[in-house]
Give the backbone structure.
Amino acid sequence: MHDQLAQAIQEAVHEFFLAFLSLEVHSGPTFRKPPFTPYTPPQADVTGVVRLSGAIDGGIHLAAPMHVALAMSSSFAGTDLEEMIDEARDAFGELTNLVAGGVQSRLADTLGEISLTPPQVALGSQYAMESQANFSAVKTYFRIEGGPFFVECFFLL
C-alpha cells in the first residue's frame, strides 16, 4: 500500500504541475511514518488538505513555505499573487484538490471507491485537525524552481 501511494503521489504531482502550472517539478525522497510513532499533521506556512473516505480513510496534504505556495498559486491563477489572499488560497486549494483527485483516480481501480471532501487551506498556526495517532503516512518531497514542498497521504490501515 505504501509503495502504491508513493507512486500515485509522484505521478499526480508531475502530471498536474506540468499541465496546470507549466512548472518542472523534481522528486525528492519519500518517507513512511515509522510504525508505533504517533501521527502529527505537517508544520508548514501553507497547508492544503483534502480528506479521503471509502477504500481509504484519511487525507492528502499539500504543504509548502509561503513563497513556494505563492509561486504555485500565481502560476495556477495566471497572475502575480504577492499575498495569501482569497484568490491565492483558492488557487492553492484547487491545486491540492487536483493532486488528491489524481491520487484518488490512480488508486480507485485497485482499492475501490474513494470519496474526496472539498479542499481547505490553512496558514501556519491556523492549522489544526483531528488526527488519530495510528494513522500511517507516506510523505514525498518535491522541488520547483521557487523551492521545496511536500505531499503527504495519511490513512488508517
About this structure: The chain is about 35% helix and 30% strand.
